Amino acid sequence: MTDLSQIVKAYDVRGVVPDQWGEPLAELFGSAFTEVVGARAIVIGHDMRPSSPGLVEAFSRGVTSRGVDVVLIGLCSTDQLYYASGSMDLPGAMFTASHNPARYNGIKLCRAGAAPVGQDSGLAEIRRLVEEWSERGAPGPAPRRGTVSQRDTLPDYAAYLRSLVDLSTSRPLKVVVDAGNGMGGHTVPTVLEDLPLEVVPLYFELDGDFPNHEANPIDPKNIEDLQEAVRQTGADIGLAFDGDADRCFVVDERGAPVSPSAITALVAARELAKHPGGTVIHNCITSWSVPEVVRENGGTPVRTRVGHSFIKAEMARTGAVFGGEHSAHYYFRDFWRADTGMLAAMHVLAALGEQSGPLSGLVGQYDRYASSGEINSTVADQAERSAAVRAAYAGRDDVELDDLDGLTVVGADWWFNLRPSNTEPLLRLNVEARRPETVAAVRDEVLAIVRA
């Protein structure tokens, strides 16, 4: 049986093309996805990677062979595909490998209304069918072959976002946007056109070989060009999108990175102004400032595990208006509970444009604590090292421990979370405290145990 364990991840399909997968498997994934979701039609989009069009064509063959229609929306960002799925009420497939290097490609799948597909919500069954059919052949074609049509959703996607955040009355702002040769170069010009914004574009040319830098702004080296451009042009703000433009990172007028936790708190305050008394989801490694700001604005914070499937499940359970993660994924009830970096960016632009001060002053009220950032340690045995850290703190009466996601230890004026990576032999440490020196002390104490 074909082993798909290397390419079927927790939330998507992703691997090197053609070494790990290619068009024959894409066709089987199309058939299997259709079988699992049982829809009348499926909407399909793709990013700018050279392998994407061929994979889309093969996947479409698999869909239509089951008698199901295909709606192709062509080049798009992942959140544009979610918009199409939500507005058309159809399952969707987005061909992208997000921030991964050029040789990779993948599929992000969703049910109608942009509902997530992960291991526990259909992906395991899709994998089982693909493995089975790759060995003994897919079922014969349906009596009626599905049709293929095309639709341009970019104008409607842009109009919908602009209906959620009004930027027309903003003071004039100069905005540097680094698209990283990814799909932000496709969406930003349409979404932000004819607004009181002077957009300074960096790397808007769609190029799946990523000739300038990786389209992965969580790595500090990949936002250096953005930081320099903001300082050189005297811009008010800088925005950096990842390859499929579903995440957005922000730098202020000095070129200093703005914590995604501060962005989560800022957007939460704005969403609670629209939806008084609402619930806001945050994961266990976002800053203390997030639940504080939510409560200050009359909302209810709910803490959950890291990962979009957990965020979306809690949003559905609680009816939450917004959810944010420290990885710069931002989820909106008004956007089918899906993540959209573009909408989060528009909220930040609106907040900045509504007042006269600089971005650094605006976000300062939401960035209240010192933090370590995520620190990765390669270990031989994740469980053994985690247990050693737990043992060091379990006997203390001045801390609280919880196991919502990895190990979280909370002191009087500090906390840390230690989580194992799902894909690498790593432990990930995040520390936050009221003072930088406390962050350093707690960080060093934990790392001494982890790396012993």
Automatic annotation (TrEMBL):
Gene3D superfamilies: Alpha-D-Glucose-1,6-Bisphosphate, subunit A, domain 3, Alpha-D-phosphohexomutase, C-terminal domain. Residues 6-135, 156-255, 263-369 form the Alpha-D-phosphohexomutase alpha/beta/alpha domain. The keyword Nucleotidyltransferase does not apply. CDD domains: PMM_PGM (cd03089). Its cofactor is Mg(2+). Residues 374-447 form the Alpha-D-phosphohexomutase C-terminal domain. GO terms for biological process: carbohydrate metabolic process. This is Phosphoglucosamine mutase.
